[in-house]
Write a structure and sequence with these properties.
By secondary structure, the protein is an alpha/beta fold. 32% of the residues lie in helices and 17% in strands. The longest helix is centred in the first third of the chain and has 19 residues, at 80-98.
Length: 686
């Protein structure tokens, strides 16, 4: 029985290596590759059921053309010829009327494979001069902030984490969202490390950590300033390392004068003594590692917050030590493949306008000159993933919008399409998958033939481009040749035969065991930037969130709502999985007992959560897992499970200052037992 080496294609930092058993052309078993240093032979509660996803009775296997009203999900099957004709005439007609900018591509990391992510599609939308999508919905604010402090650098390699003796998991719930990297944290713990979690919510990770610090959401920058000040107050700052390898040590000390620990305690809602104790531990217990997640960046001020946190390991002296320092997402190794160049921005006919992810609804309902009159969605389910659901829905409902969706399933977004084109899963196409959590590239060999008439994204976009009459030399390149170009263009040599034979190779940028013990940062001076003169304010500071810090708004909407990931879905993917939905049948919102009592809400009761943007209903779990003043509604279920409107009906579509990233968790709401007056005025009068 052949065993095929694959790679998990999903949007997760663990990027697992898979072994797929195939019998008579059918995949019959799937397992984690025991040799892969991160996968180590096991799969998560989602991908261990990947064969169910591949052979799911609801897989879309033929092109579909809409027959009913938008959103109703009524379609008929069509041949590829007819469907592609429809797509070419829909896009071509829109371009003839309004120019290329009227087309908006919308995609994210439904598949993380370098080829299926955006190579042929990137070329197509560049060539027609489409509006550019700023793909900022996930990790961009933090990325911008971290780079302000130490450039696009190799961070502490997960293979080195077991050397750490104190690990601070900051806005990260890896037990659920990165279960393989979590094993790396557990290795450190087995060797004696203490695990501290900084999270307003008692996540699964916080539950099993040694210590849990619960700040008010969006105040992490102030917490980092308080921790640095505590280190300085205790005489534990590593002045020698900072003077040798960082810019602006004296300026930072001056800035910390403005942030006494007591002030930071008041902003973050954490005891002064707890901040002092943690700060002192981060400096004294070495190697100490700060590992940030994606979760702490969903608010205004996020870039400066992450920049500020990235200064902490320098002041603590952690970079000196093997396993010590800072890690977020290893951008340097992730970016080794020439993704952007392969998308051929040079094909653009001229300057193009751009729309940030997180403002899709706004773009569809307010842009003119030209309006968005054609939308092409792949690798994404924006009706669930985007904030401001009301606007997204209003946009998708527009009769004058031509909408194409490439999908594996009839998602909430796909129901609004004019044409749906069936896409393959990772088992059915070839790709190479980089990781945004570790330093390995993983090879994905197709295990089975495409199911039904499904095709890889690359082939679908190739066919669309050729129908539109675009340059055959650019678009007829085969997938195998494109993969070869991706690997050949890597910033460091990739051993292609080892990659194929073994299934994975390490991206070796020379990062070594302690990459910045002697500085050597990817900044203009090679030094870490405690002071960065490219910024209006060159020093770290507390850049407050918007709604969370708005006292007038707090009088009307007394709770901050955060919407983290669920344990068993992958964003909205797997929310149609049998085992996953059995374990997580319905959405819920967690409220602290004090907040529930003040609103006469009982555990298990249905509540309405609302603000000026909209409302949703969900069952309430009353638990001190939530911090006082913070409501927690994990996100990912499809709309049916939410009874029609999800938590995104309340989330804001404001974006951050530098990276234009969404601010999902900078969101004030009120909560009432369902059945009482849903308007906040009634609540305020009581
Ligand atoms: N099981 C599962 N795994 C996943 C995903 C999934 O949906 N499900 N999604 C994948 C994707 S796309 C991503 S980006 C990653 C995300 O993985 P994580 O980085 O773990 O992201 P979240 O679960 O959104 O947030 C992590 C924690 O941050 C906390 N948090 C929220 N606001 C704040 C804040 O202001 N400050 C602090 N300190 N903490 C805060 C939340 O309560 C949450 O427990 O996971 C990937 N893996
Ligand atoms: N309120 C709130 N909203 C959030 C977040 C949050 O924390 N809170 N997190 C945000 C984050 S971090 C992210 S990354 C986004 C995620 O949002 P999305 O990127 O929209 O992720 P999914 O909902 O998983 O949708 C991915 C879709 O891609 C499809 N797909 C998978 N593989 C392929 C393929 O090969 N080809 C094609 N054509 N389709 C494929 C899947 O079937 C699935 O429907 O959501 C964001 N939204
Ligand atoms: Mo994400």
């Amino acid at each position: 029985m052949p065993t095929i080496r694959g790679a998990c294609p999903h949007d997760c930092p663990d990027t697992c290596a898979l072994l797929v058993t195939v019998e008579d052309g059918r995949a019959t078993a799937i397992a984690g590759n025991p040799d892969h240093p991160i996968t180590r032979g096991f799969l998560c509660g989602k991908v261990s059921d990947y064969l169910e996803r591949v052979y799911h009775p609801d897989r879309l296997l033929r092109p579909l053309i809409r027959t009913g009203p938008k959103g109703e999900g009524e379609f008929r099957e069509a041949s590829w010829d007819e469907a592609l004709d429809r797509v070419a005439s829909g896009l071509g007609g829109a371009i003839d009327r309004h120019g290329g900018a009227t087309v908006l591509p919308y995609s994210f990391i439904g598949t993380q494979g370098a080829l299926q992510y955006n190579v042929v599609s990137g070329r197509l939308f560049n060539a027609i001069g489409a509006t550019e999508l700023e793909r900022t919905i996930c990790d961009a604010a933090a990325m911008a902030g971290v780079m302000m402090t130490h450039g696009a650098d190799p961070e502490v390699d997960p293979d080195e984490w077991h050397h750490a003796r104190l690990i601070v998991l900051w806005g990260w719930n890896p037990l659920s969202t990165a279960p393989h990297l979590w094993r790396r944290v557990l290795d450190a713990r087995a060797a004696g490390a203490r695990i501290v979690v900084i999270d307003p919510f008692r996540s699964r990770t916080a539950r099993v950590a040694d210590e849990h610090v619960q700040p008010i959401p969006g105040t992490d920058g102030a917490l980092a300033l308080g921790l640095m000040r505590a280190i300085v107050d205790a005489g534990l700052a590593d002045e020698e390392w900072c003077r040798a390898h960082a810019d602006g040590y004296d300026d930072l000390l001056g800035r910390l004068e403005q942030y006494p620990v007591g002030r930071c305690a008041a902003i973050t809602g954490i005891d002064e003594a707890a901040i002092r104790a943690l700060g002192e531990a981060i400096a004294a217990v070495q190697p100490s590692l700060v590992r940030l997640g994606v979760g702490a960046q969903r608010h205004a001020g996020a870039e400066i917050a992450y920049r500020t946190i990235a200064c902490l390991p320098a002041v603590a002296g952690s970079w000196r030590h093997r396993g010590g320092g800072f890690a977020y997402s290893p951008i340097a190794t992730f970016l080794a493949l020439p993704q952007e160049a392969m998308e051929r921005p040079d094909l653009r006919p001229g300057a193009v306008r751009s729309v940030p992810m997180g403002q899709l609804g706004r773009a569809l309902t307010t842009l003119d000159d030209p309006p968005v009159s054609a939308l092409v969605v792949w690798n994404a389910n924006p009706l669930i993933g985007e904030p401001n659901e009301t606007a997204v829905r209003a946009g998708l409902e527009r009769d004058d919008l031509f909408c194409v969706v490439l999908e594996q399933f009839m998602t909430d977004t796909a129901r609004y399409a004019d044409v749906i084109l069936p896409a393959t899963t990772g088992l059915e196409h070839r790709d190479v998958v980089p990781s945004w959590g570790h330093h390995y590239l993983t090879w994905n060999e197709p295990a089975i033939a495409p199911r039904g008439e499904s095709l890889p994204n690359s082939e679908i976009f190739r066919r669309i481009a050729l129908r539109l009459g675009l340059d055959g030399d650019v678009f007829s390149v085969s997938d195998d040749d494109l993969l070869e170009q991706l690997l050949a263009g890597s910033s460091v040599p990739v051993d292609r035969s080892a990659l194929r034979a073994q299934g994975y190779v390490k991206v070796d940028l020379g990062q070594g065991a302690a990459p910045h013990a002697a500085g050597d940062f990817a900044t203009p001076s090679g030094r870490l930037r405690l002071r960065n003169d490219d910024l209006d304010d060159p020093l770290p500071f507390y850049d407050p969130p918007a709604e969370i810090a708005d006292e007038a708004l707090a009088a009307r909407f007394g709770l901050c709502l955060i919407t983290p990931k669920t344990h068993l879905f992958l964003n909205s993917s797997f929310a149609n999985g049998r085992r996953q939905t059995a374990a997580q049948p319905e959405p819920y919102v967690v409220l602290h007992p004090d907040d529930a009592a003040a609103r006469a809400i009982v555990d298990g009761g249905t509540v309405r959560v609302f603000n000026d943007r909209g409302s949703f209903t969900a069952r309430c779990r009353v638990s001190d897992d939530a911090r006082v003043g913070v409501a927690v509604a994990p996100q990912g279920w499809w709309l049916k499970a939410w009874r029609g409107a999800s938590c995104q009906a309340t989330t804001p579509d404001a974006v951050t200052r530098f990276a234009h990233a969404p601010t999902f968790n900078d969101n004030r709401v009120e909560v009432l037992p369902e059945g009482r007056h849903p308007g906040h005025e009634a609540f305020a009068d009581e």
